[in-house]
Design brief:
There is one protein chain. The chain is of the alpha/beta class and 257 residues long. Helices cover 32% and strands 31% of the residues. The strands form three sheets. Strands 6-7-8-3-9-10 form a six-stranded mixed sheet, sandwiched between helices. Helix 4 runs antiparallel to helix 5. The longest helix has 16 residues. It is globular and about 55 Å long.
Length: 257
């Protein structure tokens, strides 16, 4: 099932064309990663696809409906979005922040139904936050807060999860744990669309890769189909070797060209 689709989507900021004629699909049961160098348009693509910015041309659809025809509440019930910047207005207990993921269903901290509480506890456990659940957010490290915001998005239990660079602030252990959570969500039938900079993680965890360069989608397919030395040279400007190890694609970066 197609959860999110863009058709020839273009986005401009002044004279700069940030996204040009971008078409892709995010499917249920698939972990799709957007990769590309800095300034390639990855964040702009996500924001445009979710209807968070006004586009110049094309269309974006969530479960077949044009995002422009959906209210913010309708969209929030279908897609949980985890942006790069996640400001916290005031210190709150971790559990209350995670509970904000249930807001689209009418839940607020202090007035939670059994379904909401169960979803919140599942998200807290999945992100390894059980021992921190009653801590104030202002006592946490940056990496711990990244996991709190991830738990908030997971608690929504929407059909589609969209995350922009969710593992950037995490140490290697939690990078792998986060992407394992995403992969597990996909195996259970949810769609996951995320931006990742680490090519080794992309090669290991992604079901599909969307490659971007200079605002355009230049490749779309599985890691084995699209991740080649030529593509890495053309898109990222690096020399790399690829090999299979125990059925997994492994990338060895040798340096820049």
């Amino acid at each position: 099932m197609t959860l999110l689709e863009t058709r020839d989507l273009s986005l401009r900021a002044g004279s700069a064309l940030l996204v040009e004629n971008a078409s892709f699909r995010a499917e249920a049961g698939s972990l799709t990663m957007v990769i590309g160098p800095n300034g390639a348009g990855k964040t702009s693509l996500l924001r445009a696809a979710l209807g968070l910015v006004r586009t110049e041309a094309g269309a974006a659809l969530i479960e077949g409906r044009n995002v422009r025809e959906m209210t913010p509440l309708e969209r929030a019930c279908r897609v949980a979005y985890l942006p790069q910047q996640r400001p916290l207005a005031w210190p709150q207990p971790v559990r209350d922040i995670v509970a904000l993921g249930r807001f689209a269903y009418g839940a607020v901290p202090g007035r939670l139904g059994d379904i909401d509480r169960a979803a919140i506890e599942r998200a807290i456990a999945a992100c390894g936050l059980s021992e921190l659940a009653d801590r104030s957010a202002d006592s946490l490290s940056g990496g711990e807060m990244s996991r709190v915001h991830l738990a908030r998005a997971l608690a929504a239990e929407t059909p589609l999860l969209v995350a922009d660079e969710p593992v950037t602030a995490l140490d290697p252990r939690y990078q792998h744990e986060t992407l394992s959570i995403f992969a597990g969500a996909a195996r259970k039938g949810r769609g996951v669309l995320t931006v990742v900079h680490d090519l080794a993680l992309a090669a290991r965890y992604a079901d599909r890769l969307i490659w971007m360069k200079e605002g355009r989608i230049v490749a779309d397919g599985t890691p084995r189909e699209t991740m080649t030395p030529t593509a890495l040279r053309d898109v990222f400007g690096i020399e790399a070797r690829l090999r299979l190890m125990e059925g997994r694609l492994v990338i060895e970066i040798e340096g820049s060209i």
